[in-house]
Design a protein that fits this description.
By secondary structure, this protein is α/β, with parallel strands linked by helices. It has 11 helices and 14 strands. The chain has 3 domains: 41 residues, no CATH class; 122 residues, 3-Layer(aba) Sandwich (Rossmann fold), CATH 3.40.50; 137 residues, Rossmann fold (3-Layer(aba) Sandwich), CATH 3.40.50.2300. GO terms for molecular function: DNA binding.
Length: 333
């Protein structure tokens, strides 16, 4: 179900009236800045939005869909990126009055009864794609490029966003730039996932003729992974530690911040950090993280719209790539 003002009020610990007046920017309301900030943060985390139903809709028999998430439910709680995508799917589905079933960790054996379409969120091996195809031909992938395999895919423009981060550091006269990126495999272990941010970073730095592989550190996409990677960078590089780091997601960036703070390395005075995804987490660490904002909610909305189009009539596959925005905060100068 879509998020309501009552949901936000309960999560923020304030009255329904207070939530309504804050979200409508009622400046006459006597409420502290911290409370206003908490209400907006909760609203953003719960993806509160008023989405208008289109005036005209394609004719479709789409009624029951499944969201197949490659993360476990517990892991999704730690990485708000995929949660935000899922909530976008669920909100859009409600406006189309679609019945939605949630499946975590690609466990499609949990599906009972017929479904009319699947939105697969995350990364999937060839075998897993084939297994999903046995359920329905109406398949849309989010955050996994399955376009060449003949499926609609909703993706983020990594190349331009990473280039923009490198250009920003360059304008700040920061030319020694490090990278902390992620590695992972599909849940069946049959496909190793290359981080597209790492590939874009290498290309951008090579264009400046300043790429140094010893400044790149791989780990998993978790807080602990980012912590361990930055600890390794500090221990191995010493005084040659780069003056800027691009880090592949917010949980990793928060872990890297912890490692720098333990080593008494000031951010951003000695090391500037730019993260990726701009989840709510980016604003609740110190210093707050500059981060690439990804249109996670729009990714979910787009996936539902593509699924409805595909179910209404046969057509060629579509590959939709959404843009990003740089959000500047205190972790950069």
């Amino acid at each position: 179900m879509a998020t309501t003002l009552k949901d936000i009020a309960q999560a923020a610990g304030v009255s329904l009236t207070t939530v309504s007046r804050v979200l409508n920017y009622d400046q006459s309301l006597s409420v502290g800045a911290a409370t206003r900030k908490r209400i907006f943060a909760v609203a953003e985390e719960l993806n509160y939005a008023k989405i208008r139903r289109p005036k005209t809709e394609p004719k479709t028999r789409l009624r029951k869909i499944a969201i197949v998430q490659w993360y476990s439910e517990a892991r999704e709680q730690d990485d708000l990126y995929y949660m935000a995508v899922r909530l976008g799917i669920e909100q859009r589905s409600q406006y189309y009055e679609l019945e939605v079933t949630r499946i975590f960790q690609n466990n499609i054996n949990q599906l009972t009864g017929d479904i009319d379409g699947v939105i697969a969120v995350g990364k999937f091996s060839t075998d897993q794609v084939r297994e999903l195809q046995t359920l329905t031909d109406n398949l849309v992938f989010v955050d996994d490029d399955q376009f060449s395999a003949g499926f609609d895919s909703v993706l983020t423009d990594f190349d331009q966003s990473v280039q923009q981060v490198i250009d920003f550091f360059w304008q700040q006269d920061l030319h020694d730039i490090g990278l902390i990126y992620g590695t992972e495999t599909t849940t069946d272990g049959r496909r190793k996932i290359s981080d597209p941010r790492q590939q874009a970073f290498v290309a951008a730095m090579m264009a400046h003729q300043t790429y140094r592989p010893e400044f790149s550190f791989a780990s998993d996409f978790t807080n602990q992974g980012g912590y361990q990677a930055m600890k390794q960078a500090i221990n191995t590089l010493g005084d040659t530690l780069p003056h800027a780091f691009f880090i592949a997601n917010d949980p990793m960036a928060t872990g890297a911040l912890k490692a720098l703070q333990e080593a008494q390395i000031n951010v951003p005075e000695r090391v500037s950090i730019f993260s990726f995804n701009d989840t709510a987490l980016a604003k609740y660490v110190y210093p707050e993280l500059s981060s690439v904002r990804v249109a996670t909610r729009l990714m979910g909305i787009t996936a539902v719209d593509l699924l409805r189009e595909r179910a209404s009539k046969p057509r060629v596959p579509q590959r939709v790539e959404l843009g990003t925005e740089l959000i500047f905060r205190a972790s950069t100068k």
